[in-house]
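Protein Record: Sequence and Backbone Structure Tokens
======================================================
Scope: a single protein chain, as residues and as a discrete description of its fold.
Tokens: labelled as protein backbone structure tokens, with as many entries as the chain has residues.
Position: the record begins directly beneath this header, with no further notes in between.
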Amino acid sequence: MSKIRLLGAPAIEQAGGVVRPPRGRKTWALLAYLLLADRPPSRKRLAELLFADADDPLGALRWSLAELRRALGGGDIITGDPLVLTLALDTSVDILVVTEDSADPSPLLDFNGELLAGVELPSCPEFESWLLVERHRLSAAIEGRLRETAVSLVASGRASDAIAYASKAVALNPLEQGNHELLVRSLAISGNRTGALRQIAVCEDLLRRELGLEPSAALREASEVGPGRIAGPALGGRAAAASQLEAGRAAIAAGAVDAGLQCLRRAVSEAEHCRDGELRGRALAALGGALVHAIRGHDEEGAIVLHEAILVAEEAGDRRTSVLAHRELGFVEVQAGRRQTARSWLTRAQGLASSDEEHAAILGVLGMNSSDQGDYPAAFEHLGESVETAARCGDRRQQAWSLSIMGRARLLRAEYSQAISIMQQSLDLVRQERWIAFLPWPQALNAELDLYAGDLDAAADGFEQAWVLGCQLNDPCWEGMAGRGLGLLSAGRGDHGGAAEWLTQAVSRAGREPDRYQWVHGHVLDAACTTALARDDVERARPLVAQLAALAARCDMRELMVRAKLHQARLGDSSAAASARLLSAEIDNPALTDLSIH
């Protein structure tokens, strides 16, 4: 049996111990690229990527391939053109434990170090750019799998086993409050409230010292309440549970969030008391969805409740509730920028779905995920089908939602005429439905179209309405988008001081919650970088650009990664412009291509 270790210092182990490593850092780089590339690369491509500075690039590639074959046991394990790597069935690779959903997650607890630690190739700027993105992406994927495992263990009643995974997630990304909250919740539910309170203090000190932020209330609440728990005795009876469920849904829809959550928690408790598994699953799914959508900062608790809803629904044979919970978990992961786990949940939801309503909703979230990644062909396919399916089954809210994501994609591609038509359809549907909680999103996008059309008064009205309503709803996404728009409007009017003030507000608002929508956070950071660089404010731009680059790479937001590279080029990074051109070549966005060329 062979083991390939690429996280940390790279090594290859056989049953008898560590084998003599392949010679040359580029050979390790070649192995990592063959394992992680989206598709088998051609020999010409690899020669240009890694050996362009050699007298005979293809000859240097052949030498490195020979070294790899020797280290991996010989034989025809790397063949063809494009090159295909075929490992023996008994060969394990640490990075595949991260990227394969079915893999045992326990080895994740022993992983330390970044991809190809110590392997740096300054003479290969394109590979260096690829490696930086892959390091961030794999780190995020490891964190996502750790969190996913911890959440699943808590939901299945094994909170003590979850502690190790949550602790590792904290160690990997200690500035992410959600990781601390998950650890606090695992400790509290396992009965270690002293440890939970100690972890809260650690998190509070860390966030204040490193980020100047106060933790959200959800962190402390995590030490006091477990999934579905509520004070007070059970009333008994299925009718009481069903009544609480309907009352909770109605209260959430009316905007009375606290009352709604109280009713939904009561519904979970009552359904458990009367041993009605199907009703309990529905109540858990409703509570999880409310925690995810209706109240900010509670995605960690919401995810645990949704996991529990799936377990209960599967036991009760309730397919519809299982589909809903799978889709909601996919949505949580999309917003967090954890692409791998998002696709996994949404693929499972698709496999269970049967109705047009279910398919329309799942396709909408898939389209959002693809758009966030910069995969516009897939985004338009998913979103177009979602809109058509939602219209067919009369789900006007889903239709409006998917249209708004489609309109955003057209706006980002500078296809303004198409974007205007789509956004108007979305706005009309939102207003017909009186969907006030969602209105600021299409309002801000439509106002941006007015701004680009030169109608500054209309843009001001739209952004201001979105800002006021977003603040009333206390939604960081809406506030971030509207504040960004007001900053761009101020810049367009020549008010650079006002622009800086608004964009500072927007960056703060969009990133204030632990369960923020990472694409919005990155989109706002990009606007702040652009305006700072436009007025040569390098001191302000440099930390913003660094933050954007790290966020975009970590959350696999490829278009924002290109834009971060372009900003780095303006700050004097000589290799960043070339990296931007190479990265943008894989993104079907004419507007982005034009930026990269110029």
